Amino acid sequence: MGFHILWIEKIMIILSRKQTNPYFNIAAEEFMLKHLKEDCFALWRNEPCVIVGKHQNTLAEIDDIYIKEHDIPVIRRLSGGGAVFHDLGNICFTFVKNTSQTKAADFTSFIEPILSFLQQLKVDARFEGRNDLTIAGKKFSGNADCLWQGRILHHGTLLYSSQIADMSPCLKVNPLKFEGKAVQSVRSRITNISEHLQQVLPVETFIALLEKYVASISPNADFRTFSNLEIKEIEKLAQEKYNTWKWNYGHSPRYELEKLIHTAKGGNIESHLRVKDGMVVEVQFYGDYFFTLETSELAQKLIGIPHQKEKVMEVLKTQDLDAYFTNVTAEELLSVLF
User: 169 burial class (0-12, 13-18, 19+ CB within 10 angstroms)?
Assistant: First the structure.
């Protein structure tokens, strides 16, 4: 198609990235946006993790039991859009540029170089819908962006040889009822780029070719890596922000949860929970359970607690639960609150 993107010729830095720690890599994007001055481009990969959009309710997007059993990190990014699963078969690309825009950019100017590169490899890739790149109607890339003080960050995923079967368990939501203003993810049929190439290319080779292509249409760009000082600053940001419950879960928009369980010996329990800024602000219990103390008293003890399993369980363990819910275990009661 022969795309010619004028602004991409102004890219000054192509950052070669080898780090695969997702906390570091998401923090690195904020560093590129807020601390570098030049227009820049980077390709990078994450070890298995789930990345959620800035305005999503994290718990409503993941199977938190599966996530914890398999020790899969969950990290909130700066941009909007839906939740995605990353692994080393997924290539992430990031453009950061200076701009006079005051609203989000047209994605087309950022994805045309990606499409042009793929079409050189004889892959019939297309831009469809709001933010997706597809091959034969199947999605292989989602895109999002964000603005910050005269700079724009646009990034996307490129499913290359990802273990697609690993995605569903992570992003399969538990049978809960969440209500709120959070952005809900839309699942699509997906495919890997590698399945559509005329020749087999290791993922590292594909990355090198894409970097070379971007350099060819950005003649003034220099390849470089993060300096040791930059790495320390990114690691600090990763630790203090992106590796915290407050950012990844507590930053979720206000939401409500309703859940009904049937306990082994104590009957049915239904919970109505309201959460704001990650903290429990209201709890109500209903059901055909037996009790000797009013369950509203226990509900009051949960208000102001982070909506986090470990923190809620700490409270439950200090209470005479059998007095509130006869023959109901702490584990059963915890399950109705998440």
Answer: middle
